[in-house]
Design brief:
alpha/beta; 17% strand; globular; binds 4-(N,N-dimethylamino)cinnamoyl-COA
């Protein structure tokens, strides 16, 4: 597939690759427009359907993961334009529907829709120059792609309100301290770190990876006892997989497991 606003490649052993998707509108700080989101949706869907891909890394440029939705493109929209056309929503939902692990490797600005996009990934690894924010309030709007919901779940109400109401940015150190990102590394080590995590993930069995992702996501959707029950059922179900037999037998026999993803 050919793309204009993203670049895709795969890396790793043939049988189990990491797909790397790079947002590529550097002059506009990767501002997210319809075409970019369409291309991103298509690429993610294709990698999700590709059995040789075990994990996806989403990244941007050194200066910007993404500085938000394209303000120039939005500036003249009316209520009827955004409501009737369900303004860019269809593409934003795509990333949430991907069942394989998706890591955001963030350097530079992750603002507005850029921060929301990173939060839709399963976890965020940040470079030490990363800056997160939901500055929509400065434009007379509010976050529109889940920022008011995912940010408080990630960092708590106080920090989320602070960011949504003042529009201030959070640096990488603060983002790690409050749990928005899982790791912070020097900028020149960002892709090594993200690839290391992605290759580790690729070495595990796909059914258990997907079950772990579903179960953790469930923690954000409902109550504790329902979540624990959901986890228990998935846990039990994994005993029906070849990978569980392989993983445990390999441990007992002190050898490396060879997962078949079945
Ligand atoms: N849109 C369009 N262009 C942008 C942009 C953006 N969000 N951010 C930066 N650019 C462009 C700048 O206009 C500039 O273009 P030229 O002037 O060179 O042509 C170029 O990128 C470089 O930017 P700066 O010259 O401003 O660079 P600085 O280093 O001085 O400043 C900055 C960097 C990131 C602090 C600054 O550019 C900035 O404040 N940018 C705007 C950040 C922002 O407000 N983001 C939130 C946008 S609202 C939804 C889904 C998502 C959304 C809504 C709905 N649905 C699913 C319904 C999301 C909304 C948003 O994200």
């Amino acid at each position: 597939m050919t793309y204009e606003m993203i670049v895709t490649r795969t890396e790793g052993p043939d049988s189990r690759q990491v797909a790397i998707v790079t947002l590529n509108r550097p002059k506009q700080l990767n501002a997210l427009n319809d075409q970019l989101m369409d291309e991103l949706g298509r690429a993610l869907k294709a990698f999700a359907a590709d059995d040789s891909v075990g994990c996806i890394v989403l990244t941007g440029s050194e200066k910007a993961f993404a500085a938000g939705a394209d303000i120039g493109a939005m500036a003249n929209y009316s209520f009827a334009d955004v409501y009737n056309n369900d303004f860019i929503t269809r593409n934003w939902e795509q990333i949430r529907s991907i069942r394989k692990p998706v890591i955001a490797a963030v350097s530079g600005f992750a603002l507005g829709g850029g921060c929301e996009l990173a939060m839709m990934c399963d976890f965020i690894i940040a470079a030490d120059n990363a800056k997160f924010g939901q500055p929509e309030i400065k434009l007379g709007i509010i976050p529109g792609a889940g920022g008011t919901q995912r940010l408080p779940r990630a960092v708590g109400k106080a920090k989320a309100m602070d960011m949504a109401l003042t529009g201030r940015m959070m640096d990488a150190a603060e983002a790690e301290r409050v749990g928005l990102v899982s790791r912070v590394v020097p900028l020149d080590k960002l892709m090594d770190e993200a690839m290391g995590a992605a290759l580790t993930i690729c070495s595990y069995g796909q059914p258990s990876l997907m079950a772990a992702k579903e179960a953790v996501n469930r923690a954000f959707e409902g109550g504790l006892s329902d979540g624990v029950m959901f986890e228990r059922r998935l846990f039990h179900a994994l005993f029906a997989t070849q990978d569980q037999k392989e993983g445990m037998e390999a441990f007992v026999n002190k050898r490396k497991p060879a997962f078949k993803h079945r």
